[in-house]
């Protein structure tokens, strides 16, 4: 086995990363296609050992990064990024976005976009890359690139792919291979289904169809026909608004709004860029194109174990999944815009569609030892994830006049694992900030002299003598392992 260096994996072909490089004020676009891209990359003798193929029983080494090798794509992407950065500096992504051998150049004006194209082409020639003549060397307001149509309105499937997918959704598949190709197109165009009642319905439909792909002989069941009908009726090819990692959100004039939902077998959500502050936004504003723009969507099917979760667990898992997906974008775009007042204004609003997600925590009781069940361990893992959100300026709301902090809900479970949480006087107020973790949340701390009303049950097996506690403290001070990216010994010094 060959271990590929981690930095070769960064920035590889990913539509999400590709989209997040294009600024939201871009109005003019141009596409550059590199001809025989992989073959232009020579490899060392050591690298040739990773690019071998067998023909008629003979093993050959390639001296260039041949098409068809996954390692070639990683080497090429790193090589191209490194070359552009060496020539133009680290901010070359302000001029263009890269998807394998396709480069999308963008700009606010025609002249700016054309000038950037000339600069990029000059760098490519210096790198001895051949620019394909099949792609027009024009600058336009609408352009096709990697099967998508780009404009100031956003990005969506191009006309050819839109027509192909529309036809496929209305045609009954005759084989598993045909159904597999259809599902591949649906995965590529998740934003093309704006008329779903719930985002989780997309994964529910896909899961039903995926189960039929490998069935022999192939037969489209009644459930499969219903799933196809759901996709066909929801198909609309709506554009997703452009928004790069460098476009900051003020929290006053603009804010992020995330909505989540869960069904029996899937979770889903959507990310909107809204005009106004988080205190002014409600679900009706998300339906108004003048007030909000859809930036991203996601849906994920639940496995057989997750489908057995309680409703509130699925609701919370949908929030966790969506926040993980857009975490990099949220962190990059909500960083402090002023030095004196860094995080005073909430910039992210999370909306849930179930009161269960908000209040089931209040009367939920765990076994005597919070480390004794699978459910407990899963919740502790979720708490660790939420702890990393403490730097994000967000609020979570269910309806008008009701706001809560998701991290605070989880932190209550950590601090009071078996006792119902008493109502807070601040339940009607928006809360924001870090959960009150005094120590890493995976540590089962013992609170001596606790109030008897709290009824906290302590696991007797975890009580330590003074000598044992001293040994544990010494071990923590020397522990090089990390929690949330910080070494344990640095936390306890």
At CATH level 2, the architecture of the largest domain is Roll
Question: Which CATH top level class of the largest domain fits?
Answer: Alpha Beta
What structural class do you assign from the helix and strand content? alpha+beta
Largest sheet: 6 strands, mixed
Tally of distinct domains: 4
Terminal Cα span: 40 Å
Number of DSSP helical runs = 14
Report the principal-axis shape: globular
Runs in which pLDDT lies below 50 for 5 or more consecutive residues are 358-368, 400-461
How much β-strand is present in the residues? 15-25%
Mean pLDDT, all residues: 77
Helix content: 25-40%
Q: Strand arrangement, largest sheet?
A: 12-11-10-13-14-15
Cα gyration radius (Å): 26 Å
Topology, number of strands: 17
- CATH topology term of the largest domain: Ubiquitin-like (UB roll)
Domain Reverse transcriptase: 23-133
Region (Disordered): 417-438
InterPro entries: DNA/RNA_pol_sf, Rev_trsase/Diguanyl_cyclase, RT_dom, Viral_Replic_Matur_Polypro
Protein name: Reverse transcriptase domain-containing protein
